[in-house]
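Re: that backbone. Tokens:
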């Protein structure tokens, strides 16, 4: 093992040295060109482009791409094709195709649009909604029988629709696909998703609305109570009546009592389906607040009117109450696409076990246990020791890694990292991975690990579906720092690794959109509070990305949350992400299985975070040579909520709530 590790380290050092020698000097030109692009200085950009062309720099395509963005309206098809041929199937070639598709769509050159789209790899998805709309419009114009259904699916996805989508909307309306019934459904969904801009786009296409409604939508979004008091809503219009439901939904998020009062006051103005929709959204918010009445509320609603989100919270409410009969019924009744998700397959199996149908449950668990995620591990533990096909693994050779490093896309990523264009490098990596099979993704992960691109290594190893390498999927960088801090704080090192893998993917320079920084993504306010507790009088925000400092701050906070929750790792993990008072509030009035607590966390971000962190810790324990706990034992049991304890948590550690 030591010999293998030593050879890998030497090999990695050689790769690093090669990169530095190849790309030295290109960085300054790239940065000057980027500034020229941002200031639309075409002459300076052209000069920089020529410099990198002469040097044959791997960064050259980015400068060419910027030139094309600034001159797209003047470019010829021949010029575009020349760039595409030169850069073959790179990420930038697909971006240029998307830009050209937009131009073709706007002038309605549908034959050329379809030809250009056909040049893009099947695994590459068009992300621009405008181009998605143009693709549907092109299909309609060229008599593609699937275009109408594709357009309907795009609308039902609930995405905001830019001006480029007006032609598609018009075409779908003309043939009756976008009829008044679908238009009203989409409008309501947009309102309930708080996408008022989309709601107005849709409302404008109805003959049953006027300019006054658009103003009322804005008023209702700003202040539902005031808008209801102001009145003036045209009760004969279903679009206007939807504003009552929208207001009730908005109020239910903040205060169920206020929402119920509004429902009682205005329900007489609603038809039966509208009443049902309003009740469904009140039940949804009651479920998120863990109100027992939510189960009865969902039961009163016509099942055909429930959204996917409502179905899931219907199941979670029954699960939290451990009403296994209702859990089973709800999962059986929910749309098949939802029921097939790993979450609901697992809880269906558990419900079947609770109902004594063990053989049926084991069939579900056997298949689920082959999947590598939170519920896959739990399924394997519930199933117990069984004879199964051994999992395929792969260990890349040094030669495979060396050959991988020679790819133009990889050279380009190295150069991007040299100029700290990490976002662009990550996009290049993600695009590259899509075209690779499992063994080559593992080769990519090995290369990323050697380069110190830990986040990209994990990303590559995580994407394998049949053949895996768990050493690469769960790497152990910074072991000296983490082992020392874990022992100092007397916390589980596997849990620390689980947190860091989820928080930053081992990027010590990581900074979140809300300001959290470093390996353990500590908020500046929390860091200052901890530093004061530790007596670090010289601490300042500039130290947050120092590895040793960040790990000490993060593990201190982990110890703090663990003590706050009497050693309960699931609650401490929830607290690390969402704050201790919320983690306490989400406990039930009676002891609750840890997996049920995790699945019924109201915030989707925290719910997924907790499950991933605990699954990470489960996998890291054997990697680190630590005692192996079952995932179920690690999850444990959540003690019943204590009112006194909740009040104490809220008042004593409110500083961390700034997260």
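Recovered sequence:
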């Amino acid at each position: 093992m030591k010999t293998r590790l030593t050879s890998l380290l030497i090999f990695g050092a050689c790769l690093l040295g090669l990169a530095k020698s190849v790309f030295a000097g290109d960085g300054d030109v790239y940065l000057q060109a980027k500034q020229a692009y941002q200031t639309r200085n075409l002459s300076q950009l052209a000069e920089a482009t020529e410099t990198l062309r002469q040097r044959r720099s791997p960064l050259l395509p980015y400068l060419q791409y910027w030139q094309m963005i600034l001159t797209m309206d003047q470019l010829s098809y021949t010029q575009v094709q020349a760039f595409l041929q030169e850069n073959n199937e790179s990420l930038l070639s697909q971006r240029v195709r998307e830009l050209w598709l937009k131009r073709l769509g706007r002038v309605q050159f549908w034959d050329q649009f379809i030809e250009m789209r056909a040049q893009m790899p099947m695994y590459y998805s068009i992300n621009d909604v405008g181009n998605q709309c143009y693709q549907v419009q092109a299909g309609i114009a060229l008599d593609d029988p699937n275009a109408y259904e594709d357009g309907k699916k795009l609308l039902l996805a609930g995405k905001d629709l830019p001006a480029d989508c007006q032609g598609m909307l018009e075409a779908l309306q003309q043939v009756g696909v976008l009829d008044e019934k679908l238009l009203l459904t989409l409008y309501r969904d947009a309102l309930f998703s708080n996408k008022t801009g989309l709601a107005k786009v849709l409302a404008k296409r109805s003959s049953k609305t006027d300019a006054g409604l658009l103003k009322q939508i804005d008023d209702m979004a700003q202040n539902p109570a005031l808008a209801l008091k102001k009145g003036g809503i045209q009760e004969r219009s279903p679009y206007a009546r939807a504003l009552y439901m929208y207001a009730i939904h908005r109020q239910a998020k903040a205060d169920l009592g206020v929402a119920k009062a509004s429902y009682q006051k205005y329900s007489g103005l609603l038809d039966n389906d509208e009443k049902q929709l309003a009740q469904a959204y009140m039940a949804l918010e009651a479920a998120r607040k863990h109100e027992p009445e939510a189960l009865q509320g969902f039961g009163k609603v016509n099942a055909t009117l429930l959204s996917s989100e409502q179905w899931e919270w219907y199941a979670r409410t029954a699960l939290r109450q451990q009403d296994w009969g209702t859990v089973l019924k709800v999962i059986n009744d929910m749309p098949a696409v939802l029921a097939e998700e790993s979450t609901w397959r697992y809880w269906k199996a558990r419900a079947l076990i609770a109902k004594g149908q063990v053989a049926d449950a084991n069939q579900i668990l056997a298949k689920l246990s082959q999947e590598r995620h939170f519920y896959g591990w739990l399924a394997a533990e519930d199933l117990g020791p069984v004879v199964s096909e051994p999992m395929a693994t792969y260990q890349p050779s040094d030669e495979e890694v060396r050959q991988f490093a020679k790819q133009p896309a990889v050279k380009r990523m190295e150069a991007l990292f040299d100029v700290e264009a990490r976002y662009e490098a990550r996009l290049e990596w993600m695009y590259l991975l899509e075209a690779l099979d499992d063994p080559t993704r593992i080769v990519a992960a090995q290369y990323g690990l050697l380069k110190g691109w830990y986040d990209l290594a994990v990303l590559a190893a995580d994407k394998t579906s049949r053949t895996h390498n768990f050493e690469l999927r769960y790497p152990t960088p910074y072991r000296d720092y983490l082992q020392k801090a874990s022992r100092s704080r007397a916390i589980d090192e596997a849990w620390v690794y689980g947190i860091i893998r989820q928080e930053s993917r081992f990027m010590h320079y990581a900074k979140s959109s809300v300001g959290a920084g470093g390996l353990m993504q500590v908020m500046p306010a929390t860091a200052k509070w901890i530093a004061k507790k530790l007596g670090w009088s010289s601490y300042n925000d500039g130290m947050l990305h120092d590895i040793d400092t960040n790990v000490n701050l993060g593990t201190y906070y982990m110890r703090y949350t663990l003590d706050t929750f009497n050693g309960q790792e699931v609650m401490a993990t929830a607290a690390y992400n969402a704050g201790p008072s919320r983690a306490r509030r989400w406990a039930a009035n009676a002891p609750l299985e840890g997996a049920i607590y995790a699945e019924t966390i109201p915030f989707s971000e925290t719910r997924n975070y907790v499950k991933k962190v605990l699954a990470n810790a489960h996998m890291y324990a054997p990697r680190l040579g630590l005692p192996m706990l079952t995932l179920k034992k690690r999850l444990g049991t959540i003690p019943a909520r204590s009112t006194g304890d909740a009040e104490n948590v809220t008042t004593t550690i409110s500083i961390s709530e700034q997260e």
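The beta strands are 392-393, 467-468, 592-593, 637-638. Residues 1-10, 16-23, 646-659 have pLDDT under 50 and may be disordered.
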